[in-house]
């Protein structure tokens, strides 16, 4: 898994590609989240358009990230999930928990 991190308009943007299957990838994402929260950044966009595969550990990581932001009165957004990831979110009913967006501008303009 590869992660590119950026902060734009006080929003943490994480571009994730490859497979989100827990372990090292989870540590990498959670440390980026903890670092952002420590600097008062409480919104995060996770661009998962290039995510090939996600397993239950990967879903757990996303839920942990969401919880961390919501505990700080923030929000986590999932941007452009692939069809397979979108189906998984629907099957697990997590599409009702996560805010799914098409572009960063939806969140930045709503600032």
Overall description:
- The mean pLDDT is 92.
- With 111 residues, the chain is α/β, with parallel strands linked by helices.
- Helices cover 41% and strands 33% of the residues.
- The chain has a single domain (2-109), classed as 2-Layer Sandwich (Transcription Regulator spoIIAA).
- Strands 1-2-3-4-5 form a five-stranded mixed beta sheet.
- The protein has helices spanning 24-38, 56-71, 83-91, 104-109; strands at residues 2-8, 11-20, 43-54, 75-79, 99-101.
- The termini are far apart.
* Alpha-beta content class: alpha/beta
* Helix-strand string: EEHEHEHEH
Q: What's the number of structural domains?
A: 1
- The span between the termini is 30 Å
Question: Can you list the strand order of the major beta sheet?
Answer: 1-2-3-4-5
Low-confidence stretches: none
